[in-house]
UniProtKB/TrEMBL annotation:
<keyword id="KW-0472">Membrane</keyword>
<comment type="similarity">
    <text>Belongs to the FliM family.</text>
</comment>
<dbReference type="Pfam" id="PF02154">
    <property type="entry name" value="FliM"/>
</dbReference>
<dbReference type="GO" id="GO:0003774">
    <property type="term" value="F:cytoskeletal motor activity"/>
</dbReference>
<keyword id="KW-0966">Cell projection</keyword>
<keyword id="KW-0969">Cilium</keyword>
<dbReference type="InterPro" id="IPR001543">
    <property type="entry name" value="FliN-like_C"/>
</dbReference>
<keyword id="KW-0282">Flagellum</keyword>
<dbReference type="Pfam" id="PF01052">
    <property type="entry name" value="FliMN_C"/>
</dbReference>
<dbReference type="InterPro" id="IPR001689">
    <property type="entry name" value="Flag_FliM"/>
</dbReference>
<keyword id="KW-0283">Flagellar rotation</keyword>
<protein>
    <recommendedName>
        <fullName>Flagellar motor switch protein FliM</fullName>
    </recommendedName>
</protein>
<dbReference type="GO" id="GO:0005886">
    <property type="term" value="C:plasma membrane"/>
</dbReference>
<keyword id="KW-1003">Cell membrane</keyword>
<dbReference type="InterPro" id="IPR028976">
    <property type="entry name" value="CheC-like_sf"/>
</dbReference>
<dbReference type="GO" id="GO:0050918">
    <property type="term" value="P:positive chemotaxis"/>
</dbReference>
<feature type="domain" description="Flagellar motor switch protein FliN-like C-terminal">
    <location>
        <begin position="254"/>
        <end position="324"/>
    </location>
</feature>
């Protein structure tokens, strides 16, 4: 049930008015029973249901985890990224809410129409760039005069990070993110009309000691073709899908016909790079086992058998002597 929360003073005033007869309880009940008019703001049209917003939130929670892993590997420092909020607002309101000078990455996501905007707060964008260049990850704000090298470093980093959106969205659409524009002034960027509804997913981001927000702005035109896939009904149907018997049979046949490399290892050795560079035809490389020793036979890089070399006719061959214990672990 929706409604305003009254303060204690307002509750006391209401009870006082009822007790003195200034207000009639029957009139209040009559008022409640009448049809109420709800104010609707046409400038802020809600085009997505709460259910669809929740689905987008789940998708980008997965994206946040993928980004955390990616940036942790790239920057080698403490990274924590999580979804702070997801809301639908007019594009104009989103542009007003972000800094006047910031890092704006515009992506196309074919085969879907439209473009997605990823806004990165300069506080964390510079901390990332400082780490890439070998620094401690100290933030500084000079976004208004980025050099060409700084622009290239940051755009490459965010382009590679945004590629993980493909995996996060794989359950609803097979997209191929492409960076098409890099801008620092939101006023120079007009992706859609000012009143167009966009979904904004805000990500809390911690890079070492620097913190800020990454905002992902998705226009309605991008999500329109996949809106049915954002409903709970779609997810429930997808989870209950079972393989048909003929599908299982086809899968078994294909698994049996799958080709795996079978390799017999004659031995191993270690040599210096200098010796390796001086190797020539006719040179002898001494291995770590005798020619009389049994050989390890691997199937798909997993040791499976012990065998001995020989010949079948004029062809080289290997005879399997025994099966290695533990060779069938993990179903391999």
């Amino acid at each position: 049930m929706s409604g305003e929360v009254l303060s204690q003073n307002e509750i006391d005033a209401l009870l006082s008015a009822l007790s003195t007869g200034e207000m009639n309880a029957d009139e209040l009940k009559k008022e409640e029973s009448e049809k109420k008019v709800k104010v609707y703001d046409f400038k802020r049209a809600l085009r997505f249901s709460k259910d669809q917003i929740r689905s987008l939130t789940r998708i980008h929670e997965n994206f946040a985890r993928l980004l955390t892993t990616f940036f942790s590997a790239q920057l080698r420092t403490y990274i924590q990224i999580s979804v702070a909020s997801a809301d639908q607002i007019p594009y104009e309101e989103f542009i007003r809410s972000i800094p006047k000078m910031t890092i704006l990455n515009v992506f196309e996501v074919p085969p879907l129409d439209g473009r997605i905007l990823m806004e990165v707060n300069p506080n964390i964008a510079y901390a990332m760039m400082d780490r890439v260049l070998g620094g401690k990850g100290i933030s500084m704000n000079k976004v208004e005069n980025l050099t060409e090298i700084e622009t290239k470093i940051m755009s490459n980093l965010f382009e590679r990070g945004f590629e993980h959106l493909q995996e996060a969205w794989s359950t609803v659409a097979d997209i191929d993110p492409i960076l098409t524009d890099f801008e620092v002034n939101p006023q120079f960027l007009q992706m859609v009309s000012p009143n167009e509804t966009v979904v904004v997913i805000s990500l809390n981001t911690q890079i070492g000691e620097a913190s800020g927000m990454i905002n992902i702005c998705i226009p309605h035109v991008v999500l329109e073709p996949i809106i049915p896939k954002l409903s709970v009904h779609y997810w429930m149907q997808a989870s209950k899908k079972e393989r048909l018997p003929q599908e299982v049979e086809t899968l078994e046949i294909r698994v049996k016909d799958a080709e795996l490399p079978v390799v017999a290892t004659l031995g191993e050795t270690s040599i210096s790079i200098q010796d390796f560079l001086q190797l020539d035809v006719g040179d002898v490389v001494e291995l770590n086992q005798s020619i009389e020793s049994a050989l390890t036979i691997s199937v798909g890089e997993v040791p499976k058998f012990i065998g001995q070399p020989g010949k079948v006719g004029k062809k080289l061959a290997i005879q399997i002597l025994e099966t290695l214990k533990g060779g069938d672990e993990d179903g391999k």
